[in-house]
Fold these 2 entries.
Entry 1:
Amino acid sequence: MKLTIRPLNMRMTRAVALFVEARVRGALGRVAAGAEAIRVTLQRNAQPGAELKGCNIQVTLPGLPPIVARATDRDLYAAISSACLRAGAVARRAESRRRQRMTAEPPRLLSRAG
């Protein structure tokens, strides 16, 4: 698993980096081991009256289009957790569908008699 964490408009702390790594590993499980790349972007959107933090996760699995999950919350840790759970669910579903397509019996061609 190649994990890249990129903060935008905020400082990255060691605690946040460790939290992201733990949540990504926990949410993606076995899928994380086969991922080509996992990119996490953390951002702070300072708007008058509400400071929101966001987490974007992009998971690249071999043979599949990139999986993107986004979450925004006032609490950065909540946004990270939510985005990880979404990314994990979508990645597991995509991997399951890919496995089903690979093991499915190929369609039979109808031959014309005549």
Entry 2:
Amino acid sequence: MPEKDARVPQTDHVLTMHNRERIELTGVVGVESFDDQEIAVVTDLGQLILRGEDLHIQQLDLERGTLLVEGLLEGLQYTGATRTQGKTRGGFFDRLFR
């Protein structure tokens, strides 16, 4: 049986936020670190950093790739690889003058 690559999306990566107080994620591979102000989530499309106040992981299911976080979200940032990494798309003029 071939091994699954963590960087190849197995399901859609979806982030749903409700009133900056509840975040539901799919496409979760793991949680790298967490405290009440920051949660570093490894997704199938790169790392996602959630920042806020009184953040709590309410549910984590790595078999399904889901995560539920509650607290006051102040920001989020994606870092690392994405599906388009390594592909240079360029702008309109870059493609026009090749």
